[in-house]
Amino acid sequence: MATTISADDIRVLAQSTEPDPALALVDGEVTVVPQAELADGHLVYTKSELLTEYGEEITDVQAEVLAAGLTAQLP
């Protein structure tokens, strides 16, 4: 089964209060890691990128579109 990123994954990243959170692939699963540097080469997207591209608030539609785009880029 293919790994997918959901809008919920994007929302969890957006709401994370960790210092430098990021979405990463860990054992084939998408998860939020507390620091991008902990992604160990499997970094998908950072909260910093999210804030730069979408600002403080992300709509449901934006989260869905972003999730689909990131899923399409997964190996």
Q: Report the span from N to C terminus.
A: 13 Å
Quaternary structure state of the chains depicted: single chain
Unreliable stretches covering 5 or more consecutive residues: none
Q: Please list the strands of the largest sheet in the order they lie side by side.
A: 2-1-3
Q: Tell me, what's the shape?
A: globular
Major pleated sheet: 3 strands, antiparallel
**Order of helix and strand elements from N to C terminus:** HEEEHH
Q: What integer is the average pLDDT?
A: 93
Total number of strands:
3
Output the radius of gyration: 11 Å
Beta-strand content estimate = 15-25%
Q: What count of domains describes the coordinates?
A: 1
How many helical elements?
3
Helix content: 40-55%
Class computed from helices, strands and strand pairing: alpha+beta
